[in-house]
What does this fold into?
Amino acid sequence: MSEGIGKRFQNETKYTPGSLAGHTLDFGSMPSTFKEYSNPILRIPLTEPKAGGETNIWKLLVKRRSRREYSTDRPLKLDDLSLLLWATQGLTAQYGGTFFRTAPSAGALYPVETYLSVRAVDGLEEGIYHFRPGKYDLELIRRGSFSARLAEAALQQSMVLHAQVTFIWSSIIARGKWKYNQRAYRYVYMDAGHIAQNLYLAGEALGLGICAIGAFYDDHINEIMGFDGEDETVIYMATVGLRPPDHPI
It folds into this structure.
């Protein structure tokens, strides 16, 4: 039986004294910390996040679930979406040229980018948006409904059709490889896990349903989003929806 790429990945991204020798950081070639589109359709400022709801972290951990059933007749509040974005990737501090966010990242390099497929949010038209943490706003980069295409690419998972918003996380690999070489491929998935857990806990605090998605056709999602699949590629997704009133805990 073939060992497969998984074992190769584990072995070829190991740290050894030899693999670390001679590697220096070239600050002149360091990739930009933030991505933005030069000509988005619109830029939408987000409201300043004001935390509310159930804030006891221990209660939230007990209640956290992957919730796949959503009410489809109401939109998500833009203020709640703003809170979710801040919880996942919001800036919390800056020391010199280094930024810190609500979720940790290896070397504070933050190779993960956040996109949204918006189906029903107060004040936002349907479309694909890109989140700019540094400016704390959204860039509308593509108008229209993408829920059906994303659901098909996510192995027909119907919750994508019904969610008010689907988070789509990509990775700009060069940000991590600048410092960590092949090890960066490990770190990017760790980073995505930290971000998704913050989304779960923030969603629980707001009484929203969250479900992370790891099963999807990578190339299909990349095509929908306009990623080349190499310099930038999809790595994770999650649905956000309003819970049905009679849904069990």
Observations:
- The mean pLDDT is 91.
